[in-house]
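Exercise 3.2. Students should predict the tertiary structure of the chain below and write it as structure tokens, then compare their answer with the key that follows.

Predict this chain's 3D structure.
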Amino acid sequence: MADKSNATSSDKKPTRDEKPIQKEKVDVSVQPKKGEPGAKKYADKVKKSLEGDVKKSLEGAKEGGSKKQLDAAEKTTQDAGKKIDPQKIERVKVKVEGEVDGEKVKRETVVKPGGG
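Answer key:
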């Protein structure tokens, strides 16, 4: 195979950060405040909603590659944290993982509700 060290930039292979995540998995955990009426039900609603939002943000950023996807998921999580009722929810953790070129990529984001 010929050495392509003199390849032009248009021949450049995309880096790992520029390739989209394969087999992505979104894991959302919402910790309700203990003893708060309706907190558990609210936590379940937040979890379902946030899971959908994070998956949409991953899909929307696919063209930009894995780094942009992980950044988008993190931003979505932080934005959602600002809207969540801090009276009912202790914290929210979102873990996004998948593969790029057979290597595992993962990012975990933890937010306290109310933008704290």
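Discussion points: Confidence is low (pLDDT under 50) at residues 1-10. The first strand starts at residue 22 and ends at 32.
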